[in-house]
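Support request, please re-run this one:
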Amino acid sequence: MPTYTNDPTLPTPSFPGSHMVIDDHYVFISGLTVADLSNGHAARGNVKEETRLVMRAVSRMLEMEGGSFADVVRVDIHLTNLHTLQELDSVYAEHFDPGRYPARTCTESANIGGGCSVEITVMAQRANH
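Re-run finished. Output below.
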């Protein structure tokens, strides 16, 4: 039976959903933007800083479940401008071992909630499962 939970360090979601859904095998993390983070408002519009803050929040959420970026198997990324993909990738790649990147989709989305430039969704295997 899945567990539906929110990260206690983040504001309660403003949407009808959970930050994380955990089942016996996977941790699913809802799309996160800097608008979802209490410290993220100043970063809006700076793709590198938005990516850095969101990846930091994802890392903390994975650690809450005993995992890390090494357990991530899929990532979905939405950017308001695909021309900023190289900026995102320069920060994103720091979180994974070279050659061990998860499956990924990256799309351009004209409007991301909260006026953000980046939204990242993650699926990770549960550690020790």
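The mean pLDDT is 92. Residues 44 and 126 are 31 Å apart (CA to CA).
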